[in-house]
Amino acid sequence: MTTLTKNSESKFTINQAQIAGPVTRPSGRIVCPECGNDLLFYEVAEDVTLTTSYIQNPDGSFTPQSDDSRILGVVKLYCAECNHDLTRFHNRFVEMLF
Ligand SMILES: [Zn+2]
Q1: Ligand 1: centre distance to CA 36 (Å)
Q2: Would you list the domain boundaries of the chain?
Q3: How many angstroms from the chain centroid is the CA of residue 58?
């Protein structure tokens, strides 16, 4: 029943916890250890280069066409209730981002 999936960004992995047996609640939920919040979070990206393309209109005004953001620094995750630093959960956060 175990299926191996290959993620282009990671090696083959087998999660022993998932094989071991049933879990009473979703094991992937992030819960703030400080206040118990498991609903609202925010992410802070440092050193972001934001490039915006514009087209100049006949009257000289500009209209934005597209945004391109490039994160060069650290990305941190915080609890939105108590602002506790949850960056150690950030990898899981990214995995569960749809
Ligand atoms: Zn919290």
Answers
A1: 6
A2: 30-95
A3: 41
Q: Distance (Å, rounded) from C-alpha 71 to C-alpha 73?
A: 6
Ligand 1 centroid – CA 89 distance (Å): 13
pLDDT higher than 90, residue 9: no
pLDDT tens sequence across 27-67: 679 999 999 999 999 999 999 999 999 999 999 999 999 98
Q: Is the pTM higher than 0.70?
A: no
Return all residues near 81 (Cβ < 8 A) that are at least 6 apart.
Answer: 32, 35, 37, 40
The residues facing 50 across adjacent strands are 69
How many A from CA of 45 to the centre of ligand 1?
19
- Residue reference for tokens 């280069």: 49
Tokens of 11: 């090696």
Q: Token pair of 3, please?
A: 């299926």
**Greater pLDDT, 82 or 16:** 82
User: 43: CA distance to ligand 1 center in Å?
Assistant: 14
